[in-house]
Every structure is written in C-alpha cells, then in structure tokens.
Amino acid sequence: MKNFFRIVKETFYSKTLYTKVSRESAWNGVGFLVKLSVVIGVVLGLIAMIVGFLFLPRLKHAVATYIATGYPDALVVTIKDGTLTTNSTTPVIIPVPDLGKKKDTDQPANLLVIAPDESADISVLNKYNTTAVATGKALLIQTTSDFRVYPYGKLNTIITKESLGTSIASAEKMGAKIFLIAIIPVIILTLLVIICSKLIGLFVIAFILWIIFKIMKTPHSYKQLYRQVVYALAPALVIDCIALPLGFSGTMLTSAIVIIILFVVNRDYQKNPETSTIE
Fold first, then answer.
1. How far apart are CA 133 and CA 141, in angstroms?
2. I need a surface site. Which of 73, 80, 213, 233 has the fewest CB within 10 A?
3. DSSP collapsed to 3 states, 54-109
4. Residues 241/41, Cβ–Cβ less than 8 Å
5. Can you tell me whether residue 139 is helix, strand or coil?
6. Are strands 110-114 and 132-134 parallel, antiparallel or unpaired?
7. Does residue 234 have a pLDDT over 60?
8. pLDDT at position 81, please?
9. For residue 54, with 0-12 CB atoms within 10 Å meaning exposed, 13-18 middle and 19 or more buried, which class applies?
10. Measured distance CA(199)–CA(233) in Å, rounded
11. In the chain, what's the furthest Cα-to-Cα distance?
12. Looking at the chain, which runs of residues are DSSP E strands?
C-alpha cells in the first residue's frame, strides 16, 4: 500500500511517473484507478458512518417528537379487506414537521391527511393542501407533476400511536444496518461508474492535447497522451471528492486539472527531446 500511495502522490506532479506510464498499457492506468476508487470509497464510507452515527440520535429524537406531537393519542386507523376506517368522525390532518427553516409557499402545508370518506382523486390533495391522503380505498401521494394511487389490496392492520412508534423504531434499526452494510459498496460502485464515464471523456481531452502539442511541435503520440491522462484522472478524482461538498466539482474542473497536469509534466519535452516518451 505504501507504494500505491506514493504513486497517487506522484500523479500530481511527477514527470518521471508520466514518462514511465506513457510507455505502458493504458489498462495499467485503469487498474490503478480501480484501486484508487476502492481506497476512496472506504475512506468516504467510514466518514459517512461517523457522520451517520453522530446524526442518528438527533434523527431518532426528531421522529419520536414528531410522532408524539403530530399523531393524535386516541386515533386508531384500521385497514381491513382493502378498506381504511378510523375512530374519528372528522378527517385527521398531520402537518409537515417544523424543521426551523422558512417554508416554501409552493409546498403543501400538510404531510398526511387521513380522510376515509373522500374519493381517491387529485382534487382531494388540493383540497387539504397535502402531500398525501389516505382515503377509504387507497393512498394518494403527490409527485412533482402528478399523483400516484396505491390501493390497500389485501392489507389488514391496525395502526395506533404506540404501534406506529414501534414500527418506525424497527425501521430505523433496519435502515441503520442496511446503511452500514451498503454504504461503502455503494460509494465504490458510484466511483467506478464515474471513472468509466470520465475515461470516455479522456479520449477527447487526449485528442485536444495531441493537437496542441502537435502545433507546439512537441513529440507526443496520441496513445502516449491517453496513457498519461488516464493517470492524471487520479488527482482530478481526489480533488473532485474534496470539491464536491463545496459545490464546484464537475466535468470542467476535471478537464482543467488533467490538462494542467499534462502541460506541467510535459513542459520540458521540447527543450529536452532526449527525455521524450516516443517509443
């Protein structure tokens, strides 16, 4: 691993490294990027776990508080043979939780309305200014441009304040387990997908560099430049991971980093043709 991290560091500046890789197969660079994605995925996954464990107690407390204050104590919701009923004579309105932020006036004011006597129609969502309505026959949920209807089917259950809290606590435990198991593989897989997409874009960057160096009469073949830009993607990937939370990562940043590194490591080739990477 010590040698691997040395290579990662040298991808930021080392002329010797880029001279060496220009003579190797581009697949070596691809394998190096795969290893790098695994290392970055593990590091980011561990950071996400730490943040998750710090945030989870606050989330549990917020959910528990919301249920305690938002769900009526005596309310009993019964779903039997595909039909929903309640022990309330009026619709039950559960508002959107107050997160301490300024509410968007375009967003519904209510999270859920339980109204067994209403029909499963989009007008009901507008009537109660809500994101979801549990009618007698189906659950309606507002989407960005339309709404979805989910019939209860053969569901048979009784929901009370206590059972709702128990179900949510169980879901939180299951969610935490899934998060711990999946977070690192998901990040690694995401990085691999990003790398694959960027490798395609590197064909264009290598071609642009080849034209520029051709105009500058610097002896580089297209294959040599592509082998180099594959390794130059490593520092771009590292910087992208740092820049992403700051909101300025993307294709332009990646391209700029790769091009700058290639110019820096190849700037003396014209002056010292004996160090050229020509095969």
1. 7
2. 73
3. HHHHHHHHHHHHHHHHHCCCCCCEEEECCEEEECCCCCEEEECCCCCCCCCCCCCC
4. no
5. strand
6. parallel
7. yes
8. 87
9. exposed
10. 8
11. 90
12. 77-80, 83-86, 92-95, 110-114, 132-134, 138-142, 147-151, 157-159
Report the relative pairing of strands 157-159 and 138-142 from DSSP bridges: unpaired
Helix (H) or strand (E) holding 232: helix 222-243
Composition of the chain by helix, strand, coil, percent to 5:
60, 10, 30
Considering only CA atoms, which of 127, 125, 151 is closest in space to residue 138?
151
Question: Which of 199, 252, 251 minimizes the C-alpha distance to 229?
Answer: 199
What DSSP designation does 196 have? H
The percent of residues in the chain predicted with pLDDT above 90, rounded, is 41
**Which residues, other chains included, contact 207 with Cβ-Cβ below 8 Å and sequence gap of 6+?**
222
Select the more confidently predicted residue: 179 or 272. Answer: 179
If phi > 0 it is left, if psi is from -120 to 50 it is alpha, else beta; for residue 198 that is alpha
Nearest to 234 by CA among 76, 23, 28: 28
- Of the listed ranges 63-77, 160-174, 181-195, 258-272, the least confidently predicted one is 258-272
Q: What is the pTM of this model?
A: 0.73
Q: Which amino acid is at 10?
A: E
Structure tokens, 268: 């003396």
Residue recorded with tokens 């994605």:
37
